[in-house]
């Protein structure tokens, strides 16, 4: 830029000082708008987080209430199906204990009782001293004796 152009710009600002004021006002307004947008974004994120936290609290309370109701129902079921309660209801309905001479067993042709389940450890492979590597058969005292003997040169 030459000196004439600089003088022309300075003269233009002297004639219309409102241009500088308008630039400052525009910059300040832009800063206010940016700050308002950041604040609105922060408020949006914070409110969504608070809503999600409240929903979690509500769901946790509902789970706890459901667990309490389930426990109450299990307690009621246990008391209703106890031996004493079942016996008293059966007696009220007219049932009575059977006598040994009243019991009749039926033989069902073709019925094969299920084989008993064998849970013994005989089906597992047994490890013998021959299948275990010799490193695992040596005791600490044997190892110590072997180490001392080899360090002295005695075999």
Terminal Cα span: 102 Å
Largest sheet: number of strands, sense, barrel closure: none
Helix coverage percent: 55-70%
User: Which range does the strand content fall in?
Assistant: under 5%
Q: Strand-and-helix sequence, N→C? A: HHHH
Annotation field: number of helices: 4
Helix-strand makeup class: mainly alpha
- Please count the beta strands (DSSP E, at least 2 residues each): 0
Which runs of at least 5 residues are low in confidence (pLDDT < 50)? none
Shape: flat
Mean pLDDT: 85
Our Rg estimate from Cα atoms comes to 47 Å
Structure described in brief:
With about 160 residues, this protein is mainly α. It has helices at about 5-15, 20-80, 85-90, 140-150.
3D structure, described in words:
This protein has a domain at 3-91. The longest helix is centred in the N-terminal third of the chain and has 63 residues, at 18-80. It has 155 residues and is mainly alpha-helical. It has helices spanning 3-15, 18-80, 83-92, 140-152. The protein is flat and about 130 Å long. The termini are far apart. The mean pLDDT is 85. Helices cover 64% and strands 0% of the residues.
């Amino acid at each position: 830029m030459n000196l004439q152009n600089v003088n022309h710009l300075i003269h233009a600002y002297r004639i219309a000082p409102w241009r500088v004021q308008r630039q400052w006002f525009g910059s300040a307004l832009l800063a206010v708008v940016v700050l308002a947008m950041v604040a609105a974004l922060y408020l949006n994120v914070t409110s969504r987080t608070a809503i999600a936290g409240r929903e979690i609290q509500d769901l946790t309370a509902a789970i706890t209430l459901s667990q309490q109701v389930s426990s109450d129902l299990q307690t009621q079921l246990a008391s209703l199906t106890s031996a004493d309660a079942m016996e008293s209801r059966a007696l009220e309905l007219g049932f009575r204990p059977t006598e040994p001479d009243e019991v009749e067993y039926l033989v069902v042709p073709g019925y094969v009782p299920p084989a008993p389940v064998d849970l013994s450890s005989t089906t597992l492979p047994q490890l013998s001293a021959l299948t275990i590597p010799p490193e695992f058969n040596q005791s600490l005292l044997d190892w110590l004796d072997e180490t001392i003997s080899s360090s002295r040169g005695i075999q």
